[in-house]
Amino acid sequence: MCNGGSNAMADNNSSRADALGVSPGEVEQFRGYLMRYALLQLRDQTSAEDVVQETLLAAVEGGDRFSGKSTVKTWLTGILKHKIIDQVRRQSREQPLLQGEDDERSEADVIDGLFKADGHWQNFPANWGDPGNALENKRFWETFETCARLMPVKTARVFMMREVMELSTEEICKELDITATNCWVMLHRARLSLRECLETKWFGRV
Amino acid sequence: MLGNKVVRKSVRLFMHIPTCRETSALLSQTQDRKLTLFERVGLRLHLVVCTGCRQLERQLAFMRSAVKRYLERDDHPPR
To answer: Which residue in A38, A104, A178, B14 has a CA-CA distance of 20 to 30 Å to A10?
Structure first.
């Protein structure tokens, strides 16, 4: 946490709340985490702030429902997930995932573009060395954010549902009304695009 | 001779070594579903001979963990 809160607050970080109820201060410390979570999925500052605000409010108001069986963080994430799913449903109503075979085709085209006709790589994936070092670098995370934002809306929606919300392919298919094959193709495309972007903007340079 | 044909056919089926494009799809899907035995064998056979796809395998694992780390990062300041 980067706020200058009291020690008591810092000690509460990821603690199990044994007392009934959760205090506003206790949930507030997770705002940053919840915002990053919501932003990756929703990609819109205002909607992300809205769902996080609603989550924190619901947590404080319904704090007595917190059973103490999980951490406060896990509990908050659960609430946030529900709110995000509602938003994603709204988003996909406004911007349906697949308007037809065109979209499906374009996903496959993007993947095809990375390979030669005989199935070999156009550009072989480079050696990233020990990529774990990047995790300690603040500028790497800026690159990561840029690459996540560069992903097309629909591709990102599926990818983040899988990687951030950790939904199964089946759950994603059900939510977005797509087939499993479709889902796999979109995830494949998403991962290869993210890989390409990270390599061009980061790992190719260090 | 029918037996011979069947054997040859099944060997070819079993030994199908996927291309890099197919391998990248299998590596991606490893994160989403359980691959079939044939797929797993093909994948391993390809990886033995292909450095590029081995890099991809490591990179995919890294990217998955990076998303998690991104979410967590400010919550665990150095003590």
So the answer is: A38
